[in-house]
Amino acid sequence: MLQQGNRPSMPDVRFNVEFAGDLMPGADQATARIRLQTLFKLSDDAAERLFSGLPVTLKRNVDGAVAAQLHAAFADAGAMTRIVPASTAALQPSGAGAAAAVPELDPFGWGKPPGQVHSHTDKAFHLFERSLAFVLLVLISVVAVIAVVELCFVLYKDLVSTTGFLLGLNELFEVFGMFLIVLIAIELMASIYMYMMDKSVHVEMMLLIAITALTRKVVVLDLESKGDPALYMLGMAALLATLIGGFYLVKRLDYRHRSDRD
């Protein structure tokens, strides 16, 4: 209560800090997510919710200093926040958030769970998951190296064959098929690596790998061994058209999201 004779002080302006997944120009979402997750010690579920594209209130009823600190921390990571005036009264005294350290970002219990059993189980699961992904990455890397060596050997064998230095039609199809195998291996490596970095499956990359694999199948296709070549080719064409259509829809949706953010 205010004592008589004292003039009431004007209430401090309080703010809400919001984030909707917007990034700074030229920023990478995976990099920004890793930086924010490390800085604020967020769990994987919290980081996934933070970059879901839906507006999330990071802090409520904070003063300008705390809002500026959060905005600067997100900007350093490549993300953009919105600072809007709070509609409710202040919940903290003036200057309570003016510390130099970055404020904690855990308004909804986003931090890693404090329970020891759940924490150990979660850590063990993620360690096992990352170990499997790492083993897959090593194996696909070995396969890619073997494929490159095999490609060099096949190309050398075809070039120095007795038929001359020009490659025949069969040799060209064989070399192109080997090239596509190497390309598929590289795309799989990139997909596994991105999964290890941000724990998300990139649908665009999966569709691209499927399209490349089906393209290789078309290149090395032997219709003589098929019972009904026309029906087989029709099925391949329908499958390829479906994959290309899905890839187009994913790219179009991503373009719309970027246009809305800009």
Describe the main β-sheet briefly.
Answer: 3 strands, antiparallel
Structure annotation, total helices? 7
Low-confidence stretches: 1-10, 88-102, 107-118
Rounded to an integer, what's the Rg over CA atoms?
28 Å
SS content category: mainly alpha
* Helix percentage range: 55-70%
Q: Strand order, main sheet: write it out.
A: 2-1-3
Total number of beta strands? 3
Percent in strands: 5-15%
Mean pLDDT: 76
Main location: membrane
InterPro entries: P_starv_induced_PsiE-like (IPR020948)
Keywords: Cell membrane, Membrane, Transmembrane, Transmembrane helix
Protein name: Phosphate-starvation-inducible PsiE family protein
Can you characterise this structure?
It is a multi-pass membrane protein. This is Phosphate-starvation-inducible PsiE family protein. Pfam families: PsiE (PF06146). This protein is mainly alpha-helical and 262 residues long. The chain folds into 2 domains: 11-112, no CATH class; 116-261, no CATH class. Helices cover 60% and strands 6% of the residues. It is built from 7 helices and 3 strands, in the order βααβαβαααα. The chain has helices at 29-40, 44-50, 64-77, 116-159, 169-198, 203-219, 229-261, and strands at residues 15-19, 56-62, 82-85. It has a 3-stranded antiparallel sheet with strand order 2-1-3, with helices on one face. α4 (116-159) runs antiparallel to α5 (169-198).
Spell out the blueprint of helices and strands.
Blueprint: E1 15-19, H1 29-40, H2 44-50, E2 56-62, H3 64-77, E3 82-85, H4 116-159, H5 169-198, H6 203-219, H7 229-261
Antiparallel strand pairs: 1-2, 1-3
Helix pairs in contact: 4-5, 5-6, 6-7
